[in-house]
Amino acid sequence: MVVEAATPALPVAADQDRGLDYNLVRLEADAAAEVPNDLMRVTLAVEHNARDAAALPPLVNADMRWALDLAKQRPSVKAQSGEYTTQPEYAAGRIVGWRAIQVLELESEDFAEVTALATELQQKLQVRAMEFAPTRATRLRVENELTAAALRAFAAKAKLITETMGAARYEVVEVNVGGTPVYKSQRGAEMAMMRAADAAAPPIAVEGGTATLTVTVNGQIQLR
User: Fold this and answer.
1) How many CB atoms lie under 10 A from the CB of residue 68?
2) Which residues 6+ apart lie within 8 Å of 201 measured at CB?
3) Percent of the chain with pLDDT over 90
4) pLDDT in tens, 32-64
5) From start to end of the chain, where are the E strands?
6) In angstroms, rounded to a whole number, what is the distance separating the alpha carbons of residues 25 and 154?
7) Which residues 6+ apart lie within 8 Å of 78 measured at CB?
8) What end-to-end distance do the CA atoms of the chain give, in Å?
9) Nearest in space to 208 (alpha carbons), one of 84, 81, 110
10) Cα 223 to Cα 161: distance, rounded to the nearest angstrom
11) 157 FRET partner, CA 20 to 30 A, in 11, 16, 192, 193?
12) Distance between CA 129 and CA 48 in Å, rounded?
């Protein structure tokens, strides 16, 4: 359901001798809608510790290659390796070892597939984060609908102001259109998945929920 709202500002004092410098009204209108989060992203990480930093890359690379090969078995899931970092470990003020971490990003519209893959990957990787969001196609479709609704709300408010102020008509001086998506994460599901380290365990059920998309139109009109 689309919700439309608008908030006008007061007009400035009239000055009949100047073009666009009199009877100006600044107003704003918006339209919002709840849309399904139909895209799921999961971030996992390979992590290893060793006394010698040189020993870490082969360990991390082996686990990451295993994870990417496993991901290839699920074509509906996009998998991509990410940032690799090495950090020293200290004890009594001196370096006693090293830790290497590399992340793996999973993304899919098939929640069951990406959840099953993430559960299986936890044999060697750890889940770091989970996020749900509208796909680009869903976002663009809804934003187009909301843009039209917000512009109609802007025009309706401009007409109301014109009639209320006793003007004969109005002209649009300036219009700006912007969108503000709000995404929802699923922290509870993330924690549950992190505990499901046994690959034999069935994947947990997840629900993406919804996101609120808002398109705002603001600008100025001149009363004539």
Assistant:
1) 13
2) 119
3) 75
4) 999 999 999 999 999 999 999 999 999 999 999
5) 3-8, 24-36, 39-50, 78-91, 94-108, 126-133, 170-182, 184-185, 210-223
6) 12
7) 106, 107, 108
8) 35
9) 110
10) 9
11) 16
12) 19
What tokens does 79 get? 């998998």
* Amino acid occupying residue 188: G
How far, in Å, CA of 70 to CA of 198, rounded? 16
The CB-side HSE value for 142 (13 A sphere, CA atoms) comes to 25
By the 10 Å C-beta count (0-12 exposed, 13-18 middle, 19+ buried), 205 is classed as exposed
Tokens of 15: 């000055």
Q: What's the token pair of residue 37?
A: 């989060």
* Of residues 199, 203, 35, the one with CA closest to residue 132: 35
Whole-angstrom Cα distance, residue 7 to residue 108?
39
